[in-house]
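lol so apparently i was supposed to do this last week
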Amino acid sequence: MLNTAEILDQLARRRKNFSLSRDLYSDEGAYRADLEHIWYREWLFAVPACDIPKTGNHATLQVGAYPVVVVRGADGQIRAFHNVCRHRGQRLCPKQNGSSAKLVCPYHQWTYDLDGTLLFARDMGPDFDPSQFSLKPVECRVEGGMVFICLADDPPDFEPLGGFLRDYVGASDLSNAKVAFTSTIVENGNWKLVIENNRECYHCGGSHPSLCRSYSDNPLMTVMEGPNAASAEILAHWDRCDQAGLPARFVNDPGMQWRFARVPLLNNAESFTMSTKAAVKRRMGSIPWNDAGSLMFYHFPSSWHHFLPDHAIVFRLLPISATQTEVTSKWLVHKDAVEGVDYDLQKLTEVWLATNDEDRRVVEENQKGILSPAYEPGPYSPSQEQGVIHFVDWYVRRMMDRLSPRPAMAA
Ligand code: 3BY
Ligand code: FES
Ligand code: FE
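anyway here it is w/ fe (iii) ion bound
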């Protein structure tokens, strides 16, 4: 297991524009450092707010060692808490999704209000002060209908991401959406391999026959230079969106942690379906046309998303171990769309269920090859894998920043 100095050394010696060392994709020490310095410190996408639409609805997620619960309160507010009972530490809410008027611990029934206050604890004696035993809060922000959490006590600034979420994702009006389907899979690969694979479409032609009916594998769709620099087709799409007041132009974090861009699909395809036509009769939000393309949003380290005219798909990854990653996908549709009438669930989900499984296999084979003593880091394609380079550069910068010894404070 690598120690901090050895991890720093591998990060410092990595060859620019090449894949990382085997250890950084598989070693237990490197994995623990990723948790400590990335996963426990960054904002993480948790769920779309419409996953918990009503008071008492909650959703859980496991971030490394930390179980977290996200709850909709009686005031409509969404809050996040450590999902750990303040009595003897039972995991409070065991299910991925649940609903209850109060949060009741399954062990000895300590009962918490939806705002985390301890309301009731049986037979705790006259000196017991329940106000000392509220659930521990987790930082939580909701913008554009997307819930983000951060485990750090001093989270990084959420702006300007929040403003772009309001504008770009706001156009899909997730407050009037519902979750039509959730899929959770485990990929036997390091979380960084899952992101790297997502950040390029060099593999799409060879791996994704159904996605390639509607999604162009032209790397210009995935990597852009700026709001006024893209292919003629994308620029024309942005002009058209501008005229309709639909946020579309490429915008990115200078540090490349996140990016938004609305891109056209292939040959005027409407949606990620086998027919390339819309899967849902009712459009979401204020999107004016069926061929408005996909608003692609990614945010390191934990999510990428597609917002289409007729539905949206949000993807969340969470590390499970050095070589295992959970990927949860949720398909969102207008809240009044009726399954079997306005959409067919199979037609809505089949392309990305297949794509996720194809990506799982790619990632698992990638991990197996990397575990070989014969593996050595290989070069990324400058035209096809620019998005991967952005991610790896972001990761290495963050880790080196946070792992580097700080000069001692003056006494
Ligand atoms: O879903 C995505 O965002 C990425 C973009 C390129 C490959 N993959 C389909
Ligand atoms: Fe929760 Fe005992 S551990 S009530
Ligand atoms: Fe893929």
